[in-house]
């Protein structure tokens, strides 16, 4: 190892920064975050440093560097971009025995500044010992995507309860187990989801023994898994799926998504499958309740977004009523996923100022919709669960004044490798669905925006005319 990894405590200590450009400004920001007392030496500085100096957050000495500037400094940073000045700074710092870093000049530096992922107070530092800064940045991007944004909040909450936990749990092993469970548990999840107050209250109750640890650890996350492509999972969905003890999922959730669920989690498919009827909502609710009450982390995985035609609202209300901690994680809804993958903008300044999601299925049979409102121009309709009733829906829209030639796209298995997109006009929708063997899951997009799809644009002119 070329360098000894360490984190410096610069709180209240004097630091010298030589240089006034863009890179110097970046270093200054970092030094100030670490609460260093910074002197900038440079004949000229950019706006940011000038502002910080004007506000008294740093001191700016407006002149060239002089070797005596390094005296009394905890660290010296040079970011002038001028080789002769950088060399002068390094020489002065070395002579005075001061740690020095010169940007992009490992040969002149006694320490290097790593690439960082900042989730203050958690900081991850990455160094390639100056061999490959671009690789360091790549790694940083990867780690950025792994660490939840609220990690700092989580660390601070844990820190603020350390004393209390130590007082309540004398045994070191018991304390370690407590924290291991804590970081995997619902309080941690709550704080990552942004509910600092709720997390603090629950933590207090837990530490004060008002709740049994086991009873406390159960909970349900109602998670939107998106329309099918696993790349469209959110970071939070992924984290919860990898932590879940039980995963309750619908028919719409394909194997590509289930691959991301923790290997040893219990998986329950509550959708219809060949030879088995689907579970009723009451049965699903009872199942989630039973597992959560047994102290398990349950993920209720739903296609798309749980709050868009997903009965997520009913499940949330049910679990809340029974005092189970619940969290809802949004997902990309089928309309968004299908439109993006088919190249159809849902709104457009010239063609559609509104977009409406409707269901093609009522409680019993066809839906009872406000057809007149839906038939109005300058909007886009996205019909979910509409394949079976497509012809009847189109007829109602035309009856209420929507032009029969309005372009329509049907997107089946959107975002999946076998996605199918077919085009037509409102009056021919039933034929289009039949002729192409569309069975679903599919959404039907109705509106002028359909013409903007790349696929329509790429069609030969006669087909384009046919498509609307
Ligand atoms: N909560 C889901 C919708 C569930 S209702 C969401 O937000 O997307 C089920 C309907 O969603 C299906 O009948 C179909 O209309 C639509 N759907 C779901 N996934 C789809 C996909 N990958 N491609 C096309 N339509 C899809």
Estimate the strand proportion: 15-25%
CATH superfamily of the largest domain: Tetrapyrrole methylase, C-terminal domain
What is the overall silhouette? globular
The poorly predicted ranges are none
Q: Termini distance?
A: 66 Å
Largest sheet: 5 strands, parallel
Q: What fold name goes in the CATH topology slot of the largest domain?
A: Methyltransferase, Cobalt-precorrin-4 Transmethylase, Domain 2
- Total individual domains: 4
Small molecules in complex: S-adenosyl-L-homocysteine
Give the strand order of the largest sheet, numbering strands 1, 2, ... along the chain. 3-2-1-4-5
Mean pLDDT: 91
Radius of gyration: 30 Å
Write down the CATH class of the largest domain.
Alpha Beta
Brief rundown of the structure:
With 468 residues, the protein is α/β, with parallel strands linked by helices.
Plain-language structure description:
The protein is of the alpha/beta class and 468 residues long. It folds into four domains: 14-113, NAD(P)-binding Rossmann-like Domain (Rossmann fold); 151-215, Orthogonal Bundle (Helicase, Ruva Protein, domain 3); 219-332, Tetrapyrrole methylase, N-terminal domain (Cobalt-precorrin-4 Transmethylase, domain 1, 3-Layer(aba) Sandwich), CATH 3.40.1010.10; 335-466, Methyltransferase, Cobalt-precorrin-4 Transmethylase, Domain 2 (2-Layer Sandwich). It has helices spanning 22-33, 47-54, 83-96, 133-146, 151-168, 172-184, 186-192, 196-207, 213-217, 235-243, 255-258, 281-293, 312-321, 334-342, 371-374, 390-399, 429-435, 454-458, 461-466, and strands at residues 14-18, 37-41, 59-61, 75-78, 100-102, 115-119, 122-126, 219-224, 246-249, 266-269, 297-302, 326-329, 354-359, 379-384, 407-412, 420-425, 442-446. It has a five-stranded parallel beta sheet, with helices on both faces. Strands 10-9-11-8-12 form a five-stranded parallel beta sheet, with helices on both faces. The protein has a five-stranded mixed beta sheet with strand order 13-14-17-15-16, sandwiched between helices. Helix 5 (151-168) runs parallel beside helix 8 and helix 7 packs antiparallel against helix 8. The longest helix has 18 residues, at 151-168. Bound molecules: S-adenosyl-L-homocysteine. S-adenosyl-L-homocysteine (SAH) binds at residues 227-228, 252, 302-305, 308-310, 333-334, 338, 384-385, 411, 413-416, 440-443.
């Amino acid at each position: 190892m070329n360098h000894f990894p360490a984190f410096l405590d610069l709180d209240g200590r004097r630091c010298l920064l030589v240089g006034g450009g863009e890179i110097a400004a970046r270093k200054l920001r970092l030094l100030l975050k670490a609460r260093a007392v910074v002197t900038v030496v440079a004949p000229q500085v950019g706006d940011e440093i000038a502002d910080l100096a004007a506000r008294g957050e740093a001191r700016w000495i407006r002149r060239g560097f002089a070797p005596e500037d390094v005296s009394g400094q905890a660290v010296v940073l040079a970011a002038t971009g001028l080789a002769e000045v950088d060399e002068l700074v390094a020489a002065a710092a070395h002579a005075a025995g001061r740690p020095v870093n010169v940007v992009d000049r490992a040969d002149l530096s006694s320490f290097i500044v790593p690439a960082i992922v900042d989730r203050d107070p958690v900081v991850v530092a990455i160094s390639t010992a100056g061999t490959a800064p671009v690789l360091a940045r790549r790694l940083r991007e990867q780690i950025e995507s792994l660490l939840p944004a609220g990690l700092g909040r989580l660390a601070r909450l844990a820190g603020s309860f350390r004393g209390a936990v130590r007082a309540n749990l004398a045994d070191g092993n018991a304390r370690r187990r407590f924290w291991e469970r804590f970081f995997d548990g619902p309080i941690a999840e709550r704080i990552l989801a942004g509910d600092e107050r709720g997390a603090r209250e629950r933590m207090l109750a837990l530490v004060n023994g008002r709740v049994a640890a086991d009873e406390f650890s159960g909970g349900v996350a109602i998670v939107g898994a998106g329309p099918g492509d696993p790349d469209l999972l959110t970071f939070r969905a992924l984290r919860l799926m990898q932590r879940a003890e039980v995963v309750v999922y619908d028919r719409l959730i394909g194997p590509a998504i289930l691959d991301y669920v923790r290997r040893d989690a219990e998986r329950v498919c509550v959708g219809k499958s060949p030879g088995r009827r689907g579970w009723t909502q009451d049965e699903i609710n009872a199942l989630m309740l039973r597992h959560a009450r047994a102290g398990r982390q349950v993920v209720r995985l739903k296609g798309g977004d749980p709050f868009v035609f997903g009965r997520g609202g009913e499940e949330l209300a049910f679990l809340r009523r029974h005092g189970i901690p619940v969290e809802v994680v949004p997902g990309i809804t089928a309309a968004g996923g299908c439109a993006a993958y088919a190249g159809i903008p849902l709104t457009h300044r010239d063609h559609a100022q509104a977009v409406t999601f409707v269901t093609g299925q009522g409680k019993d049979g066809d839906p009872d919709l406000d057809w007149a409102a839906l038939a109005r121009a300058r909007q886009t309709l996205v019909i979910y669960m509409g394949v079976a009733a497509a012809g009847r829906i189109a007829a109602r829209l035309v009856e209420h004044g929507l032009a029969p030639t309005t372009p329509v796209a049907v997107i089946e298995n959107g975002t999946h490798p076998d996605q199918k997109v077919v085009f037509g006009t409102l009056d021919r929708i039933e034929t289009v669905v039949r002729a192409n063997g569309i069975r679903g899951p599919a959404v039907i997009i109705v509106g002028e925006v359909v013409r903007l799809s790349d696929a329509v644009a790429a069609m030969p002119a006669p087909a384009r005319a046919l498509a609307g």
